[in-house]
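ok so i was messing around last nite and threw this chain in just to see what happens. nothing serious, just curious
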Amino acid sequence: METEGTYDVQAIRAQFPILSRKVKGKDLVYLDNAATAQKPVAVIDALVHYYSHYNANIHRGLHTLADEATATYEASRAAVMHFVGASSTDEIIFTKGTTESINLVANAWGKSFLQEGDEIIITSLEHHANIVPWQMVAAEKKAILRVIPIDDNGILDMEAFKSMLGPKTKFVSVVHVSNALGIINPVEEIIRLAHEYNAVVLVDGAQSSVHLDIDVQTLGCDFYVFSGHKIYGPTGVGVLYGRRDLLESMPPYQGGGEMIKEVRFEHTTYNELPFKFEAGTPNIADVIALKAGIDFINTIGKAVIRKHEETLLEYATAKLKNIKGLRIIGDVKNKVSVISFVVDGVHPQDLAILLDNQGIAVRTGHHCTQPLMHRLGIVGTTRASFAAYNTIEEIDVLVEALNKSLKMLL
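result:
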């Protein structure tokens, strides 16, 4: 989708119906993509088409609608397998999002294999979804949760991480890209070092899956998790990639239909992968529409989108730095298209309200990373995050609106 070697952003924008609406009488400028991406018409159409033409439960029925639904659902699983570079569709588990994927691993793996005194390592950059499940399982198993520190710019202290590793290290769960700051963590090195101590590694790919090229086999991670709504797909669907041997060693996370092979009152045997971890009627429509989100990315090309987003990030960073009193948090080179900032004497929520009055959607607050905000000594930030459909002109609108808002607040 390139025109004479240039990025045809207007052609891309035309695929997103919501971008034509107005907010408070202004053209919508949507810069909250790290929270959720907007949906192209192909994703919306996939949802409508399922419910309109072949709405049926999957894997069980023998009628035409059930066959069509099952085939389309499993086509999405194959698309996800290729999207993350897994070796088999058996290693792709559908969940309702990144949070459930992490909880599945914490409960099914953690409660089975962690013992008293074992150590789990996370980072200071983690989303609450990659903190709280490990706190819960650590408390139950009497394991120890350790945290890799960061410097004042949000960069991980890798020497501290190396010093933490030891024979008691059993699990490392690390965010690939910080949702609050956009910083890319050195997960390849983290995985390599952790594996030297035979620790299992989970990578939280909620932010990286849409921006970076992902190949779980090359990374060498044991688990990789992400959410569909961050990659232009629907809400309510997520993915857990897990190495086959690990998934086979884990008990089911939930019990019910689909995850069983044979049920007797005396004993139940469980289904094979991936169905062992997909109890009950799944989120069929959204899983089917997830493929349309992946197809949207693949049609343009991640590398092409990434180059566009890098241009936006560079332009926005330079413009924002010219605003008096504004300080970018996590102002480092190795990051994706997220800018998190504070302004001296201005509460982020006040700023967000004034920006919304001008049609601009940004995210403010602690971004579900309260420990990170505490470490940085701030209550929260204003975050602008860019996607395939954002433009240089929208950044100009943001900067103008910021200047106007700050004159009112200061």
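not much to say yet. The longest strand covers residues 169-175.
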